[in-house]
Structure formats: structure tokens, C-alpha cells
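dude i think i finally got it to work??
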Amino acid sequence: MLLTLVIVYLLITIAIGLVAAKRVKNSADFAIAGRHLPLYMIVTTTFATWFGSETVLGIPAKFIEGGLGNVVEDPFGAGFCLILVGLFFAGKLYRMTLLTISDYYRERYGRVVEVVCSLIIMLSYLGWVSAQVTALGLVFNLLSGGAISIPIGMTIGVVSILAYTLFGGMWSVAVTDFIQMIILVVGLTLIAVFAGNMAGGADKVIELASSRELFRFLPEPSFHDIAFFIAAAITMMFGSIPQQDVFQRVMSANNIQAATRGPVIGGIFYILFAFVPMFLVASALIIMPAETAELLKDDPQKVLPTLVLEKMPFVMQVLFFGALLSALKSTASATLLAPSVTFTENIWRQFRPHASDQQQLRTMRITTLVFSGLVLAYAIRMEGTSIYELVSGAYQVPLVGAFVPLVFGLYWKRATTQGAIFAIVLGLLTWLLFLATPAGEVFPAQLTGLLAALVGMLAGSLGPQAIGNSHAGHHRMVGVE
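look at this
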């Protein structure tokens, strides 16, 4: 019965997405909803994009293992990313009326940087979308009592998301996000109240978490622990900023106020609401202590679904899995769309510069289909990897490769094409070197890569120009102050 209701819910969201798809007349409608979304939809779609599998399943698992300090990357880093985007990036980028974040790199630094940053951004999405697909496979496997294997569940999930994203693009994503966020917030809030009562009151849950030192946030005062804590915090806080899905939400706004305020409100709401799944998993320690202890050894990501399936009434099960599917589908649809639009606009267009807008729209849809297939294959290949790790690894690439050129391009007049290329090359090479050697266990690879990118930008921009910067004239266009 529960599985049937879940399938009905999937079909309803597909239908809603397809109705919204009727608004798509050109590539701008598909990519950024024709810049028509009001503030409340920017808030819900930024919140929805962030609130995915790692928030419902990954964060609680990490929290119960090591407390708040173990989840500094997400939700804290991830939420502050949206706040920083709204405060420092959204206004400048919105005024430029671009279709993708990679268009900015072209305007500021030229074609080479545009293509390289596009590839970096696209690559980072494999891990993030795979995390959502992995969770969808887990949901169908649990709901069917093991009758549906995880890979088959992944396939069902991808097809259900693709059904409306392929046709409606950003319009379908935004409308379904809005509805799914209502279900998510209401569903998880009711379940948290119910779980608190089952555990003997919210105060008992908080008391238990406190006795286990789960509220400890700051690391041990040693150089090693502090360095890795900072690295974890900035991975999503900075690494998520040069991302197409965030940029799409900013550019989809119907005015600059919605573009700047939407991500800030969405980010604050995300950090606060991410505590709900953490509260739920702490209540599981009281409600089913033996089963929770066993699951923590086996797969901590199963604690919440097991609590709901085994200890809660049918209504709560419907609410939980409706909320979980809402979180997964909203994030996955957004992250399938972003790399597809980037590839079409910033890589494919160079081979077909005179393609009509309708041809561009068709290419975006084909690319979305192909990328979905790649994500599904990658998710099946990476089965067994924790959802939190899949998401965390995804953001290290744009952090070391694309973040520094974006910030310096917007805020430093002397940033040059040579500086951007040096930053990208030095950042990526240093990061890979530390990942591949024991040095990465002594000092975090992503923090080393970011520092190397900073050195590359300064040395390349201030040193002799071996690479001609023919794009210096674009400074005025991109709003460098």
C-alpha cells in the first residue's frame, strides 16, 4: 500500500511538471524560467535544491556519529553558501543577464577559461546527482521489502525525474519544487513532533544528545583538527558558489530584490530546518536503542527510514516517504538540468555558433537525457559509498578550480586571463597531488588547492603577461568595482 501511494505521488509530480512545461517556448524559458520567478519561488527553489538526500539521510548519520562538528560542511557550510551568494554575488551577476555561470567566465577571461570552468562545474554534478539517485534506489528497496533492487530503484527514480525535467526545464523544476517543499516541511515537522512524543518529550531527546556530546561544534585545539575543520566548512560554503544550479535560481528571479534576498532567506531556512532530521535520528536512540546501535554499525543512513517503517503508524510513513521523495526529486531535477544547460550553452555552442534558439532548446533536452544516463551509471558503480561523501567530494572540484577566478574577477580589477588560468591549473594540480599522496592526511587537499589557486591568481595577474588578456575591456561589463 505504501509503495503504491509513493508511485501515485511520483505520477502526480510528473503531471504537475508537464503542465508547467507548457510555459517553455525558448531556451531562456528552459534554462532560467524566462526570469519570471517571484521571491517566494526563489526561496523555495533554493531551499529545495539544497534539501536533498544528504540532509534527510546523510547529515543525521554523520551527526549521530560525531555531533555537530561532524556536519560543519553540510548544513552549515551549504547554508552559508546561499547566504554569501545573496549578499555578494547575486546582484552583480543578475545585472549581467547571462544564461549560465560559465558565460561570466567567457565575458571576463575568454573562451579557454569558459570551457575549462564549464567542464569543472559539470564534473562536480556527477557526485551530487548520484547521491540523490542512490537515495531513491534505497527508498524503493526499503518500501518493496527488498523486492526492488537498489539499481532498479535508482532507474525508476531517474526516469520519474526525467519525465518532467526533460520537457519543462527550470519552469517545471520551480513549480514542482514549490509544491514539494510544502510537503517536505509539513511532513517532517509532524514526524518530528510525533517522534518527540514517542521518546518521552523533546527535552528527553535534547538531554540524550547533550549527554553524548552531540552538540559539540568546535574541533580539538590542534593544528591538524582545526585545518580539517576549516577545509570541511569551506568545501560547500565556497565550492557551491560557482555552480550553475545556484546561478540559475538567481537569474530566474523577476527582479534584483528577489535575486538577492531569495538565496539569503533560503539559506537561513535550510540551516534551521536541517536540525529536524538530526532531532529525528537522536529520538531513534531512545525509541529503538538496540536496532539503532545495530544500524549505526551497518548503515547509519537507514536509521531514519527504519524508525518510520517499524515504529510509526501508516500515516506517518506516508508523510515521511512523501517528504523524503520531495527532497530527493527537487534536488535531483535541479542538478540534472544545470550541467546540461552549461554543456549546451558553453561547449556545444562553439561547434554550432549559428544554431537557432529552437535547435539550442532541443540540444539542451538531449544533453539532459544523456547526462541522466551517465549519472545513473555512476551511481550504480559507486553503490555503497555514503551519500554524505558523494556530496562532499563533488564540491572540492569547483572549490579549487572555479571559485578564485569568479571572486577575483568580480572584485579585483587587476585579475587577468593569465591569472585565472594559473589559478585553475595550480589549484587542480595541488589538490590532486595531495589527494594522491599521504600529504593529504597531514593537511587537507581542498584547502591546499584553494591556497594554491590564490597564489596562481596573484602571480599570474601581477607577473609578466605571457598570455594576452584581450578581455580586459570586459571589466566594465561584468561590474568590477
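Residues 402-481 form one domain.
im so relieved honestly
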